[in-house]
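Extended Data, panel c. Modelled sequence:
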Amino acid sequence: MRVLVQRVSAAQVTVGGQAVGWIEPDPQGLVALVGVTHEDSEATARSLADKLWRLRILDGERSAADLNAPILVVSQFTLYADTRKGRRPSWSAAAPGSVAEPLVETFAQALRELGATVATGRFGAHMHIELVNDGPVTLLLES
């Protein structure tokens, strides 16, 4: 599992021009783009959710847990693109939707169980994500 995390001061995801998920950081929040591969499990999703919740990347070296910062979780299979050969990415490392969707939901639910305010995108939809990266801070978490 890969989670591309961005510290944000604003974030929203829309589908078909309609907002389906947003967070209202006060003053900061996180956007988590989540990619799933074939070997991932519920334990993987829960472990990375805990790591994200406690990761000290907000102002003053504080975590989302310290500040109760909101998190926008969006599925992102393209995090597993293989671009080593040719000009067309291979998606073979990305788990199929039937595997990935429940694990992205497990990741989001694990964050909620830890106390996070979580908004989500819509799995499998063509989404537009608007965010204001704060810092900028962008990190890649991997299992």
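The CA atoms of residues 73 and 120 lie 5 Å apart. This feature is highlighted in the accompanying rendering.
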